[in-house]
Write a structure and sequence with these properties.
8 helices, 8 strands, extended
Length: 291
């Protein structure tokens, strides 16, 4: 029935009734709106892909490089902006380095996942050639200047844009080793040192003498270690600066002679004139046992 109603043509009587209803205003004609014109998509003339189908990386257009930088600015530019990696040499023997794997291993591992292929991102553009040269010189830091350990420290500082903390203004202070929480607040923890016997109002009483273990914090060795790390960082920067200036590996920038201060703490490391601590004595004036 539905099929017959949909396929039946309008008769002359139906047409007359429809025209009569339209003339009397009892019906209106709803016309379908015309489709809007589709606007053409604004595609760029050329989409730069990081890699062609052949697998050869496509180097992006040459980016702006400062004409002159200090060695610290050059390291920060290479590791922070260009995202260059520090490729350290592998000095292990060939037996310990291991071997690569072929396409068979890839197919086996892919079969373990059900035959699916892991999607990988398109990637990013290659670092600037000057940035790679700077990272290569840093990776070859000689062992007398700390070798790979100092090179990693310099790369981390350059990537974060920070300098090693040499603890400016740090002065050792005598502080308790431990604290105890009580009702008034935190108080220094004390230990029993000696038990003595005294006479009070004709009676003998025992009294316990307590003492508080203390230490100097931060210690002089902690401050000296922090400033030794800063000196290693400074000498590594000096080596990289001299290597870049004496060679012609940089093509688009130059390295000037500006360097961070070698010893920004001055003479703060000199110990002040401390007075010797007098030996511990009891209230009677005699030295305590074991002191």
């Amino acid at each position: 029935m539905i099929g017959e109603t949909m396929t039946r043509r309008i008769s002359d009587e139906d047409r007359r009734l429809i025209d009569e209803a339209l003339g009397q205003g009892r019906a209106t004609v709803k016309r379908k709106a015309a489709p809007a014109e589709r606007q053409p998509l604004d595609w760029p003339d050329k989409i730069a892909l990081p890699r062609e189908r052949s697998g050869v990386p496509v180097r992006a257009e040459r980016r702006t490089v400062p004409a002159e930088m200090s060695v610290q600015q050059a390291l920060e530019w290479a590791f922070r902006r260009e995202k260059v990696h520090l490729e350290l040499p592998d000095n292990r023997p060939a037996e310990e380095r291991g071997f690569g794997f072929g396409m068979e291993h890839v197919l086996i591992e892919r079969a373990k996942l059900g035959g699916v292929r892991i999607d990988t991102s398109i990637g990013r553009s290659e670092p600037h050639e000057d940035a790679e040269a700077i990272a290569g010189i840093l990776a070859g830091l000689p062992g007398l200047l700390g070798g790979r350990f100092v090179a990693i420290k310099v790369a981390e500082c350059a990537r974060t844009g920070l300098t090693p903390d040499w603890m400016p203004g740090a002065t050792p202070k005598l502080v308790p080793l431990d604290w105890t929480r009580r009702r008034p607040g935190e108080v220094a923890s004390s230990q029993a040192l000696e038990e003595i016997e005294v006479r009070y109002r004709g009676r003998r009483r025992r009294r316990v003498i307590n003492w508080t273990p203390c230490e100097y914090a931060p210690s002089w060795s902690t401050i000296a270690h922090a400033r030794a790390v800063y000196r290693d960082w400074w000498f590594a920067l000096s080596h990289v600066r001299r290597a870049l200036q004496s060679s012609s590996v940089l093509r688009h920038t130059n390295i000037n002679d500006l360097m961070p201060p070698q010893q920004p703490w001055g003479q703060d490391l000199r110990k002040p004139d401390w007075k010797p601590i007098p030996p511990l004595r009891s209230w009677t004036g005699r030295p305590l046992a074991g002191r």
